[in-house]
């Protein structure tokens, strides 16, 4: 068993990494502490405090009791889950097609895709396309919007190209078609890139608010990120607490709006943060399974 040598360089690098981690960990924990603190004691919290002052669920009660927030949360989950599934499938199957050696016109297609990646259309052109497709104020506009990211497509192509051609040829000799090869060989062997680009797609769709605020106009089709921006950035408190039942009990006057903002941010963070441990678990397992054994 080899013993790692202690060095001053490793000590410095470790200290730097710890400091960088703290710059991300402390603000998040301070936000969570503010969300769970008693409204009467929130003013006692400082920027470096990571434990709540007192304990109360009142902020989350106010936020979640608003039916608009619940509807927006469901809309965000629908767009993220369905949109990510669409993106993964079409990105992977397109990458499979573009990696076939006998594909006619592969070079012009790749040039066209790279041009699209570099010169993105403006918001006016995108709005007109969505309008012509009759998808304005429709959740499917955000589900289908940018289903394929060209950069992720190229990454997927590189992984598929590393799959031995002998596996595909053996399957074809046994009578397998392209769809069978894709479903039985390509997808099982592409677990790591699928998890990687899937996480990228999910985070991008969950955090999207600008295009959602343009394509989705009605309150019933709004998403959580748009409400978050209205309340946290623009200070629109009536949108969040206007329909809350707690107003009838005169509890709103006791609330601290900075802690309400913190609770709203926490609600928006939790679903996507829960994704990371799941992805990392399978990602590590895939790396170990893909190791070279001699």
From TrEMBL:
UniProt name for this protein: Carbohydrate ABC transporter permease
Membrane topology: Multi-pass membrane protein
The organism's place on the tree of life at top rank: Bacteria
Compartments, record wording: Cell membrane
Domain ABC transmembrane type-1: 73-278
Protein transport in keyword set: no
Stored Gene3D superfamilies: MetI-like
InterPro entries in UniProt: MetI-like (IPR000515), MetI-like_sf (IPR035906)
Keywords noted in UniProt: Cell membrane, Membrane, Transmembrane, Transmembrane helix, Transport
SUPFAM superfamilies associated with the record: MetI-like
Family recorded in the similarity comment: Belongs to the binding-protein-dependent transport system permease family.
Source organism per UniProt: Paenibacillus violae
Entry's transmembrane regions: 12-33, 77-98, 110-130, 142-160, 181-203, 262-280
């Amino acid at each position: 068993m080899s013993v790692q040598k202690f060095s001053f360089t490793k000590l410095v690098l470790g200290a730097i990494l710890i400091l960088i981690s703290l710059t991300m960990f402390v603000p998040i924990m301070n936000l969570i502490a503010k969300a769970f603190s008693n409204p009467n004691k929130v003013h006692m919290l400082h920027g470096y405090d990571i434990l709540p002052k007192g304990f109360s669920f009142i902020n989350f009660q106010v936020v979640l009791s608003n039916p608009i927030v619940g509807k927006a949360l469901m809309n965000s989950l629908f767009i993220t889950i369905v949109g990510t599934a669409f993106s993964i499938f079409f990105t992977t199957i397109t990458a499979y097609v573009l990696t076939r050696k006998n594909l006619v016109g592969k070079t012009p297609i790749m040039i066209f895709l790279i041009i699209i990646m570099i010169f993105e259309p403006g918001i006016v052109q995108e709005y007109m396309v969505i309008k012509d497709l009759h998808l304005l104020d429709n959740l499917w506009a955000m589900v289908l919007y940018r289903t394929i990211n060209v950069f992720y497509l190229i990454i997927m192509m590189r992984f598929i190209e590393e799959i031995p051609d002998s596996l595909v040829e053996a399957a074809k000799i046994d009578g397998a078609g392209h769809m069978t090869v894709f479903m039985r060989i390509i997808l099982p062997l592409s677990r790591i890139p699928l998890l990687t680009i899937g996480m990228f797609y999910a985070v991008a769709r969950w955090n999207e608010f600008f295009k959602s605020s343009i394509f989705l106009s009605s309150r019933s089709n709004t998403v959580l990120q748009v409400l978050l921006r209205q309340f946290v950035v623009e200070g629109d408190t009536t949108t969040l607490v206007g329909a809350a039942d707690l107003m009838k009990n005169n509890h709103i006057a006791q609330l601290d709006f900075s802690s309400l903002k913190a609770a709203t941010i926490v609600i928006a963070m939790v679903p996507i943060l829960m994704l990371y441990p799941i992805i990392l678990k399978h990602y590590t397992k895939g790396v170990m399974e893909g190791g070279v054994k001699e």
